[in-house]
Amino acid sequence: MRFLLTNDDGIEAAGLAALSSAARELGETVTIAPAGALSGCSHRVSTDGPFEVETRSANVHVVHGTPADCVRVGLYRDGASVDWILSGINHGGNLGVDLIHSGTAAAIREGVFYGKPGIALSHYRKRGLPEFDWARAARWVGPVIRDLISRPWQPGTFWNVNLPHLPSDAADPTVCFCPVDRSPLPLEYRVEEGVWTYSATYQQRQRMAGSDVDTCFRGQIAVSLVQIA
Fold first, then answer.
1. By residue range, what is the domain housing residue 21?
2. 3-state secondary structure of 194
3. What's the number of domains the chain is made of?
4. Is 0.90 topped by the overall pTM?
5. Distance (Å, whole) CA 52 – CA 55
6. Which residue(s) pair with 62 in the sheet?
7. Low pLDDT (below 70) residues in the chain
């Protein structure tokens, strides 16, 4: 099995290193990731000018572009050898309508357009808890990836996985397959002298019972099949 790895937090992100660690237990990896953080860039691509691609090693490349650019570069270079595309592990949740603006999800969506299956992986952040334990996150996603790549792929779809943020002494979470929540994000802004700052609280967003938002917020690993075509 050969995996193309990318993200939207940049080549130096701890979540990408955790994903690489988990994926190497399942097959060969090539990492092609953005030079810097591009969270929320959605499906933007660089078609109006050149961009640089740095080679750090035979299997690690840095793109001065977007997550979707990274996937395009990877498939152009050696798409025939890529079996699955993995994106993440994002530093923050990509739940419900987050998938519209997520660069993490856009990378996988780009691959689906070219006939490649993929998994977008994110780690929800809960206020008041310590920083992420990336070694634990890698241990959680390994079996999930193994399960999903063993299933027949449905063209026009991809898997979206969100890890919960749990206390350090909590038991490992269970995996729950659930639909994507379509509820909108809350509209709250702080306005000062014509300057608008988004001020809504992510944890207080609407949620449908049994959806990916509800599942992850309740402390389970939310796995959703996303239909794009």
1. 2-227
2. coil
3. 1
4. yes
5. 10
6. 33, 54
7. 229
